[in-house]
Structure formats: structure tokens, C-alpha cells
């Protein structure tokens, strides 16, 4: 099914990575706006118009699973999380693709992402058919989360060597760019310096 009015759009939150650049700290438990980063991300997904919704867990699941469960969100475990983010993308897609025509793939480490961006992407898929992906852009710069249409979901699940990044690079003409007034689509937390910069910004 091509995207358009009535399109079923699922949401997948990627929270399985090892976050090696953050050192020993589990970045998903870092305090952000008075709660754990993961808790904030799960709440954003839970409050979105996306359905079904799924969280992908893997590394240090003993820390992350209780946070997800407390908010009543379903999760799937990616046992291959050490293989990288694409393994988590596939785990999430497999969990929801049969109940959706498009899937929004969201990173769990975006501390400033706004609810309005998820709503804008959901609306764009409904009103801009004829594309295979939808990506938010702030002042012309692409960010996350991104929506994958059914064709690209099938392509990723059918070819373990293929990545979403490759599809975006190969087929920019198949991507709908959705302007948003949300700089949070560009700011993730990968390193201790990233987190310190985030804290400095919030204090200002």
C-alpha cells in the first residue's frame, strides 16, 4: 500500500545499543528534564498518534526493561545488538511491519525531541503519498526520527547487508523532507561531552 490518508503508521524506539562512546555510563538512564532519558523517549512515543508501538532493547536490558515496563510499553529484545544499530532496526521492523504500512524509527537518545515533530511526521505520511521515506529537517538539515514506507521496510528485512542510510543516499528522490521547528531532531547524546553541552544549554 502506498502512503496516504488512512495509512497505518507504527512507531519503533531503538534502545538496544551499547553506547560505547559514553564510557561506563548507561546514557539511557541519564537525567533529562527530571527523568531518565529513556523514560522521556518512551513517553514521547506513548503520547504519539503512532500504532502499534514497540521498543527495541538489548544491551543492559536489566536497566532498561523496568523503565519501559513502568510506562506500559511493549518491547522486543534484539539479541544481536552488538552487531550495530541496523540489527535493532530490523528487530523493530519485524515486530510491527505486519500491522503497519509505514514505520517511524526513533532514536532513544534525543533529549530535546518534541512531540510536535512526531505529529508532523505522522501527518506528512498521510498527506504526502508517493514517497518511500519521510525525514524531518530543521533549517534545511535532516535529522531524526525518520519514517520508512513499506517498500523500504521489506528491502531492509530482505537484505541483511542493506542499511537505511544506504537507501537514503541512493534514493534521495524517494524521500519527502518535512520542515519542523525543532532543533531537537539534530541533538543526540553519544559522549560525555554531548551530555555536558546539553546540561549547559538547559542551564542557560
Question: What's the overall geometry?
Answer: globular
What is the rounded distance between the termini? 47 Å
Q: What is the number of strand segments? A: 10
Q: How is the main sheet built?
A: 8 strands, mixed
Share of helical residues: 25-40%
What string, H for helix and E for strand, traces the elements in order?
EEEHEHEHEHEEEHHEH
Report mean pLDDT, rounded to a whole number: 93
- Quickly give the structural class: alpha/beta
**Unreliable stretches, pLDDT < 50, 5 or more residues?**
none
The amount of beta strand, in percent, is 15-25%
Number of helices: 7
Radius of gyration: 16 Å
Please describe the structure with a list of short key phrases separated by commas or semicolons:
204 residues, single chain, two-stranded antiparallel sheet, alpha/beta, globular
Amino acid at each position: 500500500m502506498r502512503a496516504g490518508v488512512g495509512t497505518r503508521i507504527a512507531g519503533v524506539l531503538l534502545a538496544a545499543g551499547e553506547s560505547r562512546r559514553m564510557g561506563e555510563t548507561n546514557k539511557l538512564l541519564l537525567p533529562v528534564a527530571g527523568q531518565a532519558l529513556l523514560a522521556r523517549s518512551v513517553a514521547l512515543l506513548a503520547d504519539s498518534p503512532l500504532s502499534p508501538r514497540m521498543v527495541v532493547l538489548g544491551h543492559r536490558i536489566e536497566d532498561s526493561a523496568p523503565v519501559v515496563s513502568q510506562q506500559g510499553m511493549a518491547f522486543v529484545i534484539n539479541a544481536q545488538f552488538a552487531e550495530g544499530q541496523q540489527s535493532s532496526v530490523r528487530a523493530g521492523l519485524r515486530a510491527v511491519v505486519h500491522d503497519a504500512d509505514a514505520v517511524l524509527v526513533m532514536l532513544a537518545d534525543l533529549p530535546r525531541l518534541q512531540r510536535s515533530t512526531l505529529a508532523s511526521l505522522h501527518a506528512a505520511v498521510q498527506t504526502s503519498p508517493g514517497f518511500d521515506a519521510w525525514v524531518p529537517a530543521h533549517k534545511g538539515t535532516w535529522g531524526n526520527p525518520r519514517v520508512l514506507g513499506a517498500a523500504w521496510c521489506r528491502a531492509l528485512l530482505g537484505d541483511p547487508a542493506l542499511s537505511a542510510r544506504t537507501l537514503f543516499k541512493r534514493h534521495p528522490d524517494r524521500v519527502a523532507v518535512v520542515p519542523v521547528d525543532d532543533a531537537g531532531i539534530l541533538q543526540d547524546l553519544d559522549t560525555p561531552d554531548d551530555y555536558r553541552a546539553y546540561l549547559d544549554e538547559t542551564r542557560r
